[in-house]
Amino acid sequence: MCCPWISLSNSEIALSDFESRGSSVAALIRELRRGVFPGCVLICGGTGMGKSALALLLAQALLCEEPSYAGRPCGHCKGCRRVRAGTHPDLLTPTETKKKSIGVDEIRGILSALQTHALESDRRAVLLDDADRLTPQAQNSLLKNLEEHPPATHFILTTAYETRILSTIRSRVVTVRLAPMPASALTAWLQAQGLNESAAAECARLSDGSPGLALTLNADESDRALRTLAYDTVFSLVSEEDIPEAEYRLKDLKDDFDRFLSILERELRLCMRGSPDPRFSARFAEASPARLAVLLGHVISAEQQRASNVNYQAVLNVLLQSILEEIKKWPLS
Fold first, then answer.
1. 10-45 pLDDT, tens per residue?
2. Per DSSP, what are the bridge partners of residue 45?
3. Contacts of 245 by beta carbon, 8 Å cutoff, 6+ apart
4. What is the CATH number of domain 15-177?
5. Rounded to an integer, what distance in angstroms lies between the CA atom of residue 24 and that of residue 185?
6. What distances in angstroms separate CA 9 from CA 20, 34, 98, 170, 212, one per listed residue?
7. Beta-carbon contacts of residue 240 (< 8 Å; ≥ 6 apart)
8. What ranges do the domains of the chain cover?
9. Would the pTM count as exceeding 0.90?
10. CATH class of the region 221-327
11. Structural contact between residues 92 and 103, judged by C-beta atoms closer than 8 angstroms
């Protein structure tokens, strides 16, 4: 019941890379190195934060053949290699990994397999990635095993949507929350993936500490193009004379307008948190969060209008005028 895994990156990732990702994560790793690991763990974190990579490393550590706990996972032994390849007989996962939901029959099959002895290791790991895809019936079928799990068996669940996990499940697991990766560490990590210093710093800033999102953004040429367009138009407004030029440059944005608005929102939020894009003028970069919040309100209003199917050109015109009127109130730098 194993499945192939796609690692977060092509470079080797170690448990030590996760020690700065939150106190609960660091405590879990310390316990593992002492030879202690909970019977049931739920790893929570946003999309692209590295939950699957951490879960896989924990499974490797449990099934590693390296005798020293401090050295697990070694990454090179037969056990580690088979876990990473998804072929270890004592690593149990759903067979259907791409379905929107995981049903009770799938989970019952895994639980049935637990009635037999481990085949190659002295432990077994049950890995349920994106456990929020489990139907309520499937989650309920886990309850008894989570509370009274078989000896030397460890359940590792991950989710980006903690509230979708039944409270009865959450009360039976040790929950660890994966914090965002520190900007400096993420920048260095991205450079190790082959990004140049400038691209790594930019993607680290935009991804808000998410390694997976950072890599996605680096490969997303359309996001980069729309971001440049935002700075050449909306974030370059100074006077009424700039409106016609901005409208002209944005006139063919119909299919990407909603995404363009989301990029405006993202850039303003980052600036409010003290991480402005270098292309922001001094007026933007030095503006108070309260002033930026007014601009953000106009963008959110535009998004709400678009959700109500208001014509994008009408929304754009109002947005540009509203942002310009607000910026004109700001003191000149």
1. 346 788 889 889 999 999 999 998 888 999 999 999
2. none
3. 233
4. 3.40.50.300
5. 19
6. 19, 28, 20, 30, 9
7. 324
8. 15-177, 182-219, 221-327
9. no
10. mainly alpha
11. no
